[in-house]
Amino acid sequence: MEGRSRARLMNDQVLVQAGAPHEVKVMTQVSAAEGLILTGEVEQVSEQLARATIYLLMDELKRYPASEQPYHLARIVRDKRFGFEVHLLRLKEVDLDDDQSRRVEEGDTVMALGKGGDSIRVLSGILDTPWVLELGPIYQMNPYPPQLLTIIVVVALTLIGLTLYLLISGLEQRLRGLESAATRIARGSLDTRVEVRGADSVGRLAGAFNHMAEQLHLLLTVQRELVRAVSHELRTPVARLRFGLEMIESAETDKARRKYMEGMDGDIQDLDQLVDEMLTYARLEQGSPALSYQRIELGTLVEQVVAEIAPLRREITVTCEPGSLVPFDQGSWIEAEPRYLHRALQNLMTNALRYAEGRVRVSYRVSVDRCQVDVEDDGPGVPEAQWHRLFQPFFRADDSRARVTGGHGLGLSIVRRIIHWHGGRAQIAKSEVLGGACFTLMWPRRQAPKVEDDI
């Protein structure tokens, strides 16, 4: 209970607290020494209760002349101990508006709020006298006084401010860590990572930052390896060209000159092939290439590539074997980028033809939502320890043999990227049928509008 309400009870005044509609709780002090307070609940509260009290007092006062009424009212108040103030005032002393003053002058009963809005006054004029009988003010107990509300608001705002400060300071500290890490990466420290704490927005940002740093480190590493490998690959044909030019100058016959010129032409073709593979790999490696997916027949495409590749080594038998088609009546249609898928199949079959000793087997299968192409050969195969590196750019399982058979080590890397952009994967295993290597491509039969890079 607030201090003012307690002080009013100590002064033997009555306090009223509103409850449910038409119900009030009435409180008055019984014993000041023991601090006892009598509390009662009154139902069906209305203006009639106030009128009844007014009428009883007026009925008693009308027994006396108007000049003696103030004296007798004081005696009644002293004897009855109403618990609220009772006054006789003149009409001009009452603070009422015009309508209320008119009603009081006519003997009607008026209820009015006190100036603070926390009390009620009941007034009624005594006819044929100059007096207005006033009951009150009767104070209402406010469980939430302005002072308490002010304290509550101040404490709440302080707690909210403190909480926000702690949150923002922690957030700012974590963001400063991200800023510092970004600065170190910009200066060349690519191994920099930030601590991922929690699953909130900053935690997710930290995870994305680390992923970006890893991708940046990987791309720069690949770039350095690519530059090193390219310089290494270019050195051999350029050296052969220089040697051919020197030999042409010293050749004594036309036949010898033609021989050296044919060798130089082969070196130029080798350089042209290397540049073409490098450009293709670069297009597939940087960002998302422009892929135009179309519905094509996988069987037709495989047979076309086989027909193009087989004449390169006529001593090798190349067979094309269609596998299961589910559902059978829909054929082998798939959604793919024809030009890039043709390049991937061409690279795989060329690789198999290069190392095969007598036979290459190409098979394909189409299911409801997946498609698969297997390219097998009867060559020496690839050691299992090197399978995970085989699709890296410029990697050769047997470098000396690769230089004899040709190739630059980019073909399988291009295959991996093409199938990646189709949402699939490329893998290698040992051929159970021919005993050599078995390269497998698997990807979805239907393509989404765009495939995001997740490598």
Automatic annotation (TrEMBL):
Membrane topology of the entry: Multi-pass membrane protein
Top EC class of this enzyme: transferase
Transmembrane segment boundaries: 148-168
This enzyme's EC code(s): 2.7.13.3
Compartments it resides in: Cell membrane
CDD domains documented for this protein: HAMP (cd06225), HisKA (cd00082)
Pfam families: HAMP (PF00672), HATPase_c (PF02518), HisKA (PF00512)
Catalytic activity: ATP + protein L-histidine = ADP + protein N-phospho-L-histidine
Domain annotation HAMP: ranges: 169-221
SMART domains: HAMP, HATPase_c, HisKA
Keywords: ATP-binding, Cell membrane, Kinase, Membrane, Nucleotide-binding, Phosphoprotein, Transferase, Transmembrane, Transmembrane helix
Domain Histidine kinase as annotated: residue spans: 229-447
Gene Ontology annotations for the cellular component aspect, listed alphabetically: plasma membrane
MF-aspect GO terms: ATP binding; phosphorelay sensor kinase activity
InterPro entries noted in UniProt: 2C_sensor_his_kinase, HAMP_dom, HATPase_C_sf, HATPase_dom, His_kinase_dom, HisK_dim/P_dom, HisK_dim/P_sf, Sig_transdc_His_kin-like_C
PANTHER family the UniProt entry points to: SENSOR PROTEIN CREC, SENSOR PROTEIN RSTB
Protein name: histidine kinase
Gene source species: Pseudomonas nicosulfuronedens
